[in-house]
Design a protein that fits this description.
Two copies of one chain form a homodimer.
Chain A: H1 17-30, H2 43-50, H3 54-66, E1 70-73, E2 77-80, H4 85-92, E3 95-97, E4 105-116, H5 119-125, E5 132-142, E6 145-155, E7 167-168, H6 173-181, E8 185-196, H7 199-205, E9 212-222, E10 227-235, E11 240-246
Antiparallel strand pairs in A: 1-2, 3-11, 4-5, 4-7, 5-6, 6-10, 8-9, 9-10
Helix pairs in contact in A: 1-3, 2-3
The first copy, chain A, binds a DNA duplex (19 and 19 nucleotides) through residues 16-18, 42-44, 52-56, 58-59, 61, 72-78.
Keywords (chains A, B): DNA-binding, Transcription, Transcription regulation
Organism (chains A, B): Teichococcus globiformis
Protein name (chains A, B): GntR family transcriptional regulator
Chain lengths: 247, 247
DNA sequence: AAGTGGTCTAGACCACGAC
DNA sequence: TCGTGGTCTAGACCACTTA
């Protein structure tokens, strides 16, 4: 069933055609018609279905590709992005060792509880104070040593029934969210500062209280731009650096 | 004089045409034929001169625009990017106040000397140990308070005769480099960590030695991808945050 | 009114991947 | 071999800026 992009009646939507195409395609992905890993119709097929030229479809697909919503490969086709440990880390894990190389990371879940949103969590997640949330505490081992203590808060309305067992957890959180809860994280905002280690963090990392740590507050958003997670990471930067490229 | 993009003899350059166009245009900008602020020929003119279609020129220009080398405006034309305090800050100054708003910043030059490159400086700048460099120390006031102490090292071969007087300095360093030394910074890499304040920094910021500070090491590259500056910034994050977007 | 970049089309050919 | 996305062309019309 072709989507009516340009009805006979005068078009009030003044946005460029390729923006509208982009939104239609994104809608199908967000709505679950095309789940992660699904192969999209070919460009000529999409063009015919939507009643636009292949060039317009291409421009829309290029935008979605830049936002990592889809992946295109010559000869193979276009698929909805699927998180895996590589892409999840490349996009959302900025730590490198002192030589600039990627880091081997292991994750230990300390605890996972249900709770109510504190004011700062509610503000970050765009929900109301007291709304149900899940709390997750994790320790990350970088190259074998405990270097990061993370306190994560997830909006329970977006990931109902969330829960992971304590102990080592091999999977990246965002891969797990996609596979187990059908929630795809697409972007995040981080605010960085320096702080002395608090008691809980100091114990988790085996450092004295007050040790200077890199504190990262992250808010993660899904494909539909909903805030899913707010996370406070306390990072021991003795042997690692948080890498940023400005261009 | 048209540039021969596709000679009669078989073309060995297998790169796409638009990449070659991109390189030609970038070459004219780097070479100084088109200085910052200069208006480029129109797309049809470039297409005719280079012997390609306007669509190919457009794709090359789009790439350069994404890299902030040029700026395009409908009806007005395309110009070579010129640093000003707005763009310089938007790209290279990541600090926000606790509400996420931009910050009013003043710069005080503490000292400016000539010197020889230490090993770590030489490694960062891609020069040899002992090569001539300029050292610059600055204090930044954010919203009126001293919050950042910066130690900058510039490669003297790229900015010969560099020098700024001590005291307040209204201009952004990269704007000054472009206007006074014809060097345009286009991108930078930053490595972030947490560290206790050393004696020099503690005095500059009026904080006790050992106060946790955000330490940022930046390497700045010009349009020709040469390392121009390495900078160590010590930042008091009591009332400010370093903002990063991951997408 | 003239000229610029922005959008959109229709069609050609090529490089790559899967069968 | 076939279908995919990648490149390239030629030309139309539109929206914006400047004069």
């Amino acid at each position: 069933m072709p989507t009516a992009l340009r009805p006979a009646s005068p078009q009030l939507d003044a946005r460029p055609l390729y923006r509208q195409v982009e939104e239609i395609l994104l809608g199908r992905i967000v709505g679950g018609d095309w789940p992660p890993g699904h192969a999209l119709p070919s460009e000529p097929e999409l063009a015919a279905e939507l009643g636009v030229s292949q060039g317009t479809v291409r421009k829309a697909l290029t935008e979605l590709e830049l936002r990592h919503v889809i992946e295109r490969r010559q000869g193979r086709g276009t698929t909805v992005s699927r998180h895996n440990s590589e892409t999840a880390r490349r996009h959302f894990f900025r730590l490198r060792d002192l030589s600039g190389s990627a880091v081997i990371s292991r994750i230990i879940v300390v605890s996972c509880d249900e709770g109510r949103a504190e004011p700062w969590e509610a503000a970050a997640l765009g929900i109301r104070e007291g709304d149900p949330v899940h709390h997750l505490r994790r320790i990350r081992l970088l190259d074998g040593s405990p270097r990061i203590f993370e306190r994560c808060t997830l909006s329970a309305t977006l990931v109902p029934g969330f829960g992971v067992p304590p102990g080592e957890f091999a999977q990246e959180l965002y891969v797990y969210l996609q596979q187990a809860h059908n929630v795809t994280i697409r972007r995040a905002e981080e605010d960085l500062s320096a702080a002395g280690a608090d008691a809980e963090t100091a114990e988790a990392l085996g450092k004295p209280v007050g040790t200077p740590l890199l504190m990262v507050q992250r808010i993660a958003y899904d494909v539909a731009n909903r805030a899913v997670e707010v996370r406070l990471s306390m990072i021991d930067t003795e042997r690692h650096r948080y890498a940023v490229r400005l261009d």
